[in-house]
Amino acid sequence: MAKLLQRVEINLRSFYIFNSSFGEREGEEHKKVLYYHPNDIELNTKIKDVGLSEAIIRFTGTFTSEDDCQALHTQKTTQLFYQPENGFWLMLVLNVPKEVRLKEGVEVADYRGAEIPDRIYRATLRQCYQMFRFLNGTLASFGSEESNPDKRRELLAQQLQGFYEKYLLTLKDLSHCDIIDMLHSVQYLPLDKSLFLRAQNFRMLSETFPAIKETIMLYQEQILCGGKLLPEDLYCLHSYVVQNVLKQEEGSSTLALSPSLKRSISESQVGGFVRSQQAGEGDGSEQEAEESPLKAYVTVEKQVKTYYLLIYRALHITLCLFLDAEQPPPKQELYDELHAYMAPQLTSLARDIASELNKAAVGATSQESASNIESAPKYLFINEQSLQHHTNLARHMPQGIPRNVLSIISDLANPSGESEIESASAEELQVKTTNDYWIVKRRCNFRQYYVILCNSKSTLLDVTQEARRIFEQELTDDVFFDK
What we know:
By secondary structure, the protein is of the alpha+beta class.
């Protein structure tokens, strides 16, 4: 039997963005390349990679529509295609996992391309675009004030370079991407009625401060109030807050008080507006920073609208305020008024939530440790409309469920598109894997429920009864059903 010497997990080979309309003349092929990672690759290699992608897109276009070109598998790589806007293509090229074995004294690489679920990594590629659009607007509209096409292209290329050189560093380890990453789902924090109503009352800030158009509240990494944002915009906001505010705050890195607040918020106060410095920030004067708050581009009635995004932190609560960017930027007086109005209420709410969670945690330690055992039943419940999820999957622990089980769940999962919802309103199925895992899926009323069991001796009847028990035991939160 061949001895396993080494296993190399899936990793990023390259990521690039191109638009064929920017380099239609001979000798200008390099203009098609708007961004390429890694940047130290020779220009000719970049041009060849883009040319190969164009050829694949055109070839497949003779059989299907252009947007149907989604993935290309070779022995060593998987190439994923995504066209978010007309003419703009994003490419994600992955090195497939491989196992190096010793056979008869010779090292042989066994490439495991079947272990790459296309749907999960195409969702990762889509999110790369969604985050850029959320913070910079659409690719086609960027630099629209510039009449010279070459200058517009140069401005776009510079912006892409500045954004993705930082964003790709925060990209999740590709070998750990799972079904929740594919569905772009967020987790809500269940609260009792009084705390829930106190949190929801902050959505009424617009009554006192008309400049505020939307309010989103988080407690640590969980959503308290989702507002009226579309699920994809809420997921982008959640990702931005987690990566650029919470994680940097934990590491005491570049997170800082907004310059306009350094004069008004003393160190003894527990709340304050924060802003995470991004690429290109921090070089201007304090006055320029005051006049340029962070902007977010949110979809409203199928149109992308620009808002100023103000982020306020009070203990473990993060409050995100959206202000209409068509109005003048917020002045220092508004920051002071908001801080004086919100600080006491948010601090009190954060302490009460922490107290409530501590009470709920008493006695739950044993259940939590039991759920982390590999053979313990796992569950995942997803609301297709709000993209809310509820699960006990240990996503960042080595005891997590195997990759092949995650791949099966990703194949079973229904996307959130309307056509798919209408075509399969209700279903139930059970799958057994070769490594003795059972997957039970139920789908009804725009909800998807999954139970994962590991027991080689279970019969079909045993699995059905255990799944029913978990459904009845865990689905007790009416808020999950009503959202």
